[in-house]
Design a protein that fits this description.
D-Amino Acid Oxidase, Chain A, domain 2; FAD/NAD(P)-binding domain; 2 domains; binds flavin-adenine dinucleotide; 422 residues
Length: 422
């Protein structure tokens, strides 16, 4: 047991939880709900005024975990079922190819989705501290035993826990302190929601993806390879955006990493003039537009970067990089690690169960090795790992070797054969 810290604490509050969770996004909320249902104490610390303050993914498959966390049938009740079609447009929209996937996938509004998590968390009596920003982990003798955060008045406070779950998204605040390099993992992405879009859902029900090779844009010849996308929604609305694909960039001399303002300038031009893509914007109104990041160039090098800390969701880069989909994977990962720690806590003889004490035995090197192996044996990990390998090979061949519109268009038939496997 590590007791010394508590006996020397200055503020005497000794607030202790089984899980101190950083961030109230899908990962943090799933972790807290799962913990509460197992009878464990969890605190979520969220820097925003509300949970998940900025909209992110608004489409996901109807997996069992969604019913488990949000309630049976909740997702279909708020969602528009997608038809499964994806249209892939070659650079310049010269050729296109459609793939079809039979799956139970829904689009919904971020706020409605997140509010439901919060409703369930409240039912389970999870404590969420809003307007509190986590600054760093509290480390003692090599173990993470809690976090320091600034409360809404700016006062710095400490809170302690058996495990700190970093669910703070694409620049994991705790992960960063333990050496995770988010610059290597993150790709810029523009999230944009439009209404009065120039589309009719009956005529264009499929998701549209427009490839842009490096060297294809005469106004920005060194711009990284990218994919512009359109997800058609009901009532002439759509989610549109631009994903910059950065995983090959370190090996490409022809690419220059653009600044934020360069990305936004290119985005403005694509909206008005990129073949095919720009037609959706004719007469449209932009309701939301933001340049953000998504960690889909690679996974974090270590999900347990320090004994006592677990990275979950975007903080771990745990995303299917092909679809840039992380909602399901964040939820699955959060549920897995909370259940694992619960089982471990039960297996350790704890006479001091009620005492707010950090149990070192939970975090021996041997145990951490076993936890990682168990996680790597899950279907979710295997899928994500497989997708990272697949997209690595795909992007190398297409965006690095072929690179430009002319060459990609020449090899389009070969590319479509790869896309059919995605
Ligand atoms: C444009 C875009 C489109 C996407 N589309 C899809 C999609 O269609 N389908 C899909 O499955 N996925 C999609 N994703 C990915 C998906 O949104 C993420 O994988 C998912 O939100 C990850 O959840 P998370 O809880 O790990 O992180 P987040 O949702 O980012 O939540 C992190 C939370 O931590 C809080 N926080 C951050 N720092 C601190 C701090 N220091 N202290 C306290 N709190 C902090 C934040 O305010 C936030 O509430 C998309 C992402 C983007 C950006």
């Amino acid at each position: 047991m590590v007791n010394s810290y508590y006996s020397t604490m200055e503020d005497n509050t000794r607030e202790f939880y089984n899980f101190v969770i950083v961030g109230a996004g899908p990962a943090g909320l799933t972790a807290a709900i799962t913990a509460a249902r197992l009878g464990l104490k969890a605190l979520i610390i969220e820097k925003g005024e509300i949970a998940g303050p900025r909209p992110r993914g608004e489409g996901m498959g109807h997996y069992p975990i969604v019913d488990e966390i949000l309630g049976k049938g909740y997702l279909p009740s708020i969602g528009l079922k997608s038809n499964g079609g994806r249209v892939w447009h070659s650079p310049g929209d010269i050729q296109k190819f459609t793939t079809f996937k039979e799956y139970d996938h829904y689009f919904f509004e971020w706020r409605e989705f997140i509010d439901r998590f919060v409703e369930v968390a409240n039912e389970e009596k999870v404590k969420i501290s809003y307007k509190c920003e986590v600054i760093e982990p509290i480390d003692e003798a090599g173990f993470t035993i809690g976090v320091k955060y600034k409360d809404e008045t700016g006062r710095v406070k400490n809170v302690f826990g058996q495990a700190v779950l970093d669910c703070s998204g694409y620049f994991g605040v705790i992960g960063s302190k333990y050496g995770i390099n988010y610059n290597d993992m993150n790709c810029p992405i523009i999230k944009c929601l439009i209404s009065r879009a120039n589309l009719n859902l009956k005529e264009t029900p499929d998701l549209q993806f427009y490839f842009i090779g490096n060297g294809d844009l005469e106004y920005s010849p060194k711009f990284p390879q990218s994919v512009a996308y359109v997800f058609p929604l009901e009532n002439q609305r759509a989610e549109v955006g631009l994903m910059l694909r950065m995983s090959q960039v370190p090996q490409m001399r022809s690419v220059e990493v653009p600044t934020k303002s360069e990305i936004l300038t290119v985005w403005d031009k694509l909206k008005t003039s990129y073949p095919g893509f720009s037609t959706f914007f004719k007469g449209a109104q932009i309701d939301y537009e933001e340049l953000t990041y998504l960690p889909n160039a690679k996974m974090a090098s270590d999900f347990v970067p320090n004994p006592g800390t677990i990275l979950i969701g975007d903080a771990a880069g745990f995303i299917n990089p092909f679809g840039s989909s992380g909602l399901y994977y964040s939820m699955e990962m959060a549920s897995f690690w909370v259940k694992l720690i619960y089982e471990e806590l039960n297996s350790i003889n704890r006479e001091e169960d009620v005492k707010p004490d950090f149990i070192k035995d939970l975090w021996t090197d041997e145990k951490i090795g076993q936890y990682k192996l168990k996680f790597e044996n899950t279907d979710a990990f295997k899928e994500v790992n497989h997708m990272y390998n697949l997209i690595g090979a795909f992007e190398y061949k297409i965006f690095n070797r072929l690179r430009t519109s002319e060459k990609i268009n020449k090899k389009w038939e070969y590319i479509t054969s790869l896309l059919s496997q995605a």
